Amino acid sequence: MIYNDVSQWVKNEGEEPIVLSSRVRLARNLDHVLFPTVASANDFKVVQDYVHPILSSQYDELSMKDVTAVERLMLVEKHLISPTLTKNSEGSVYISKEEDVSIMVNEEDHIRIQTLSNTLDIEALYNQALAIDQEIDQEVNYAFDEKLGYLTSCPTNLGTGLRASVMLHLPALAMLDKMPQLNYSIQRFGFLVRGIFGEGSRDLGHVYQISNQVTLGKTEQDIIDDLIYIVHNVINQEKEARQALYNHYEVQLEDQFLRSYGILKYSKLIDLKEASQRLSEVKLAYDLGMIETKPFNFHEMMVKIQPAFIRYKTNENENLYRAQLIQQHLTMKQ
Amino acid sequence: MIYNDVSQWVKNEGEEPIVLSSRVRLARNLDHVLFPTVASANDFKVVQDYVHPILSSQYDELSMKDVTAVERLMLVEKHLISPTLTKNSEGSVYISKEEDVSIMVNEEDHIRIQTLSNTLDIEALYNQALAIDQEIDQEVNYAFDEKLGYLTSCPTNLGTGLRASVMLHLPALAMLDKMPQLNYSIQRFGFLVRGIFGEGSRDLGHVYQISNQVTLGKTEQDIIDDLIYIVHNVINQEKEARQALYNHYEVQLEDQFLRSYGILKYSKLIDLKEASQRLSEVKLAYDLGMIETKPFNFHEMMVKIQPAFIRYKTNENENLYRAQLIQQHLTMKQ
């Protein structure tokens, strides 16, 4: 399942097309073991020995040493592990059947608990992560300071150890060049806008992640409440931008989007950047009722067209396979 | 017919897809009337009075004064009159039912006899034009000099008054950037390469006209023989260029051509230049067996997408109508 398809919760689309996913992550460390950034092979083993009995009965374990380079990258593309974990062969990840929970061990921190969903119910994701956290807490001693809170490898995670993020499809704000301004105003609240895979992936398919920058000096509830407030605000801005685009450029937009559809439908070779942009445009056109395609799951497509996802399936030319894949999924209504 | 559709001989495609059309033109003037470049309204009338009785029973007459600006441009787009004739309201044209003969009166010269076809049989076109020439010659006195031959307004037409030209679809030579070199070598033989509508239209749909530059000091037979020799040579070069493209860039070409098909099939707005280029690419792909479209007549499409042709049909946005028109004509084989 993990290597053959996108996660089930991605396949089941959420209610709001602008929201692709929400994610909560808790960073935790054991208090008597060196942190992974300075740990030895033996330290990694100690962590594993603590965690394995707690998690292995409930989750599938994947040890990085048993996983090929392509498979590691696929797990990153599915947001089940971080790029950091791919670099540590002593690391491992525990994944739920539905692929909506992943617990990384020996990543930048000893334990990173992550929960994912296709809705905006971050509260529920947090509670789900917290339950796992408490289960582990009963068996280990976390590195915790009365004043600072949970201790982490990187000071940006200190305190709550909580990172909550929402992945949004914001094509209209991007087309109207509103993203820098949005990013600026969000930063003032201690939140960040990044691309689909964090820094450096900005603009791929007009997909953006909004997450808290600050983990210290705010309660978990405040972080979650502020994120939900900001995300609702951004969704409204995107909706207004879509309406503005539609009102001012209807025919030109329809031309642009239909051309993108035509290219997706007939190209023989298509790279990731172009495919992402054109899929985003067709999705926007679909959401605006400008193109009568059969419903298609944009998030699912954005995962399936990623390089490692394709490399795992085929030795064919990546751009050739990507074009064929899109053509199988995208169809106009007759 | 003239304003509602393309000429019948264009609809009946020729045998060689690279050859769109051949054309022969004879320039003639009456010897006792001022040439059109310096003529008065009365001189124009004198010419008309001579020519009308000879031609009006065999051909449909269109006087420029009865023809709207859009209709004049359409006649140019159909190659039935020259841009020069559109500027003289005292001018007129006699056109055969099949639109394969057009005789312009009071253009740059008093009489210009033109014959057109979709084959390379320039000999037959010349004989057809000559028969009309002789019919007129029986009733009028041509301006003719024993030493110089037929006298014309512009010295470039002096002598035989013959211009023979062939319109070719040369996408592979154009894509390989061979046209400047080809033009250079052809000029050395006294021939010229121009775009589909003469100078300034270069590159529109990769359609090129090859015609003789010299009308003096060569017999009609030499001009025709040389043209046929050169055209056969160019056709062979184009065929070699197509094979070279196919051998070296098969997948990339297929991608480029299929994208052009997709854009033609789905764009909402398309301008003349882009439509011409993409139709040319799809036609090349069809000729190379790379795209399985239903057969389509490239020459016919190149006429139908011209601005005046569209303006006559509709008051809608030109680019909108052009896109719809192409979508009606272009279909993939199922």
Please give a structural write-up.
2 copies of one chain form a homodimer. Chain A is α+β, with helices and mostly antiparallel strands and 334 residues long. Chain A has a domain at 246-329. Chain A is 45% helix and 16% strand. Chain A contains 12 helices and 10 strands. Chain A has an 8-stranded antiparallel beta sheet with strand order 2-3-4-5-1-8-10-9, covered by helices on one side. In chain A, a hairpin with a 5-residue loop joins strand 4 (101-105) and strand 5 (111-117). Chains A, B: InterPro entries: Arg_Kinase (IPR023660), ATP-guanido_PTrfase (IPR000749), ATP-guanido_PTrfase_AS (IPR022415), ATP-guanido_PTrfase_cat (IPR022414), Gln_synth/guanido_kin_cat_dom (IPR014746). Chains A, B: ATP binds at residues 21-25, 79, 112, 163-167, 194-199. Chains A, B: This is Protein-arginine kinase. Chains A, B: Belongs to the ATP:guanido phosphotransferase family.
